[in-house]
């Protein structure tokens, strides 16, 4: 790898790397010189992505990771450091949605499942990463609040559990940022809006083709388009790179194309 590349010599973990934003970000990090640790439950998909990265002369390794099992997460992180000698950054991307419904309609078990995946899954990763990074005295965690994570600050009808888990995750990130700052570790987040590539979004739009024109409306997306994963990567890379983000910690960068900005319609 050329030393001129942005993340040359850096070891960066990407969770939820088997598809969507996670896969895109992992590939871009490798192009920018990082040794990317691809983590997800499906090893076979990760291995295919690893081969693609290596075919382009990038560096990648794969690890099976269940973010719901903290001891497993801790063990995997320790093995990464034992193998590579360090952990420079992490992009905590694993997460997901769940069943739609009002607070009264949603079963308690489903509410807890969504919280386990979105909140506790990221909490487990952040805790294990911080154990390592605070001892190293360096590192940067870009803890993504996942697809549609503008709902860490907004509310979406029929998604009480999802929105609550994202709001809680943003508070966790800010607490972690304050606690880790003295050790030289920065903790930030990106909050994507509707974003492609996304299997769930594409599937929904195939079933409801009329919605796509609505999403592209300037009243919904002032930019006139749904966000692409390349837009998300630009923010993730900024946060992971200490040269460009400096003392930024506890920051949340909205990557929404303007979606969520209150607009007054005079039409």
TrEMBL record:
Span of the signal peptide: none
Coiled coil location: none
Domain of life of the organism encoding this protein: Eukaryota
GO molecular function: oxidoreductase activity
Pfam family, one: adh_short
InterPro entries: NAD(P)-bd_dom_sf, Sc_DH/Rdtase_CS, SDR_fam
Keywords: Oxidoreductase
Keyword Oxidoreductase belongs to the record: yes
Membership in a protein family: Belongs to the short-chain dehydrogenases/reductases (SDR) family.
Protein's name according to its UniProt entry: A-factor type gamma-butyrolactone 1'-reductase (1S-forming) (6-dehydro-VB-A reductase) (Butyrolacton e autoregulator synthesis)
């Amino acid at each position: 790898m050329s030393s001129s590349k942005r993340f040359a010599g850096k070891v960066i973990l990407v969770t939820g790397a088997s598809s969507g934003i996670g896969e895109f970000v992992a590939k871009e990090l490798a192009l920018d010189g990082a040794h990317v640790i691809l983590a997800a439950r499906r090893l076979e998909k990760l291995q295919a992505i690893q081969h693609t990265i290596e075919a382009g002369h990038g560096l990648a390794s794969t690890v099976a990771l269940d973010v719901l099992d903290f001891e497993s997460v801790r063990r995997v992180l320790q093995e990464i450091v034992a193998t590579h000698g360090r952990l420079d950054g992490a992009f905590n991307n694993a997460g997901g949605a769940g069943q739609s419904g009002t607070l009264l309609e949603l079963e308690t078990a489903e509410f807890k499942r969504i919280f386990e995946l979105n909140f506790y899954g990221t909490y487990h990763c952040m805790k294990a990463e911080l154990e390592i990074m605070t001892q190293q005295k360096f590192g940067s965690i870009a803890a993504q609040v996942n697809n549609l994570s503008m709902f860490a600050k907004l509310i979406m009808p029929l998604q009480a559990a999802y929105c609550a888990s994202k709001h809680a995750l943003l508070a966790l990130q800010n607490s972690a940022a304050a606690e880790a700052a003295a050790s030289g570790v920065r903790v930030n987040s990106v909050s994507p809006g509707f974003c492609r590539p996304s299997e769930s979004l594409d599937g929904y739009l195939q079933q409801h083709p009329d919605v796509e024109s609505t999403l592209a409306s300037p009243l919904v997306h002032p930019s006139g388009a749904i966000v692409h994963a390349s837009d998300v990567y630009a923010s993730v890379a900024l946060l992971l790179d200490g040269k460009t983000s400096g003392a930024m910690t506890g920051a949340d960068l909205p990557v929404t194309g303007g979606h969520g900005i209150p607009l007054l319609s005079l039409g």
